[in-house]
């Protein structure tokens, strides 16, 4: 893929691998809708983290799949919860050589599958959820996470978690803010990956795809609250937003090539309709060219091997 006049280049260090770790399994479990991606045991996750180091990746983003869920998502801030145990294991193994990120959101841990706790009417309670995010962020910081990925889309989440971290001496823990997270059909395979219990959708707290100006308002808000890295997600269908946010952001911009973007390429390639590696690299170059300095992608290891 190298060209003499190429202005856009991909480097393994630009890539971050999202990974799933599931409680209570003895062997890694395949994810039907994401061929090539598995739910890891702690042991296989640590092995994967070593592969990320060897490949020169920039980082790893951990998602936990707990055995038990409840309305409050109490596994999220339990130091013995699967995500916090896994974070400690990865940080102990490779934390000096790989940036370790954790998903900070309740949806994997709640029985109803929403990103926050619910009020009496069954709606997501924004401000009550902020308290839960602060507790979850502190648990992740105590577990050694370097970067917290605030993906829940509650208003005020960045400022609230930042204040909680600073109050406990975690000034150096970085906040990656999901600034523009559009509601999307492409999250489908992820719901299987995390055994989501969600009924309905997240339209009340994720963004409406036809709305382009909200992304810049969210950017200003997240920066004012102390975001260190800004994320746009999904990446492929929203490259104009990646570009607009990158042009306006004084801090690094990341983009997330999500589960459905991955699975579409795999499925078409499996049918022999497209060349998997070529389309994979083309999709990543497009995201990079739009202005993302970091790309979260399930292709991270495969792409790094070709760069
Ligand atoms: N914890 C929320 C979260 N963080 C990342 C993803 C999706 C990532 C993907 O589809 O690959 C989701 C799920 C959602 O918003 O429905």
UniProtKB/TrEMBL annotation:
Name the record gives this protein: Delta-aminolevulinic acid dehydratase
Quaternary context: Homooctamer.
Gene3D superfamilies listed in its UniProt record: Aldolase class I (3.20.20.70)
Pfam family, one: ALAD
Pathway named in the protein's UniProt entry: Porphyrin-containing compound metabolism; protoporphyrin-IX biosynthesis; coproporphyrinogen-III from 5-aminolevulinate: step 1/4
Signal peptide: none
Xref: PANTHER family: DELTA-AMINOLEVULINIC ACID DEHYDRATASE (PTHR11458)
Known EC number: 4.2.1.24
SUPFAM superfamilies reported in the protein's UniProt record: Aldolase
InterPro entries: ALAD, Aldolase_TIM
TM region positions: none
Its biological purpose: Catalyzes an early step in the biosynthesis of tetrapyrroles. Binds two molecules of 5-aminolevulinate per subunit, each at a distinct site, and catalyzes their condensation to form porphobilinogen.
Top-level EC class: lyase
Keywords on record: Heme biosynthesis, Lyase, Porphyrin biosynthesis
Protein family per UniProt: Belongs to the ALAD family.
Recorded catalytic activity of this chain's protein: 2 5-aminolevulinate = porphobilinogen + 2 H2O + H(+)
Species of provenance: Nostocoides veronense
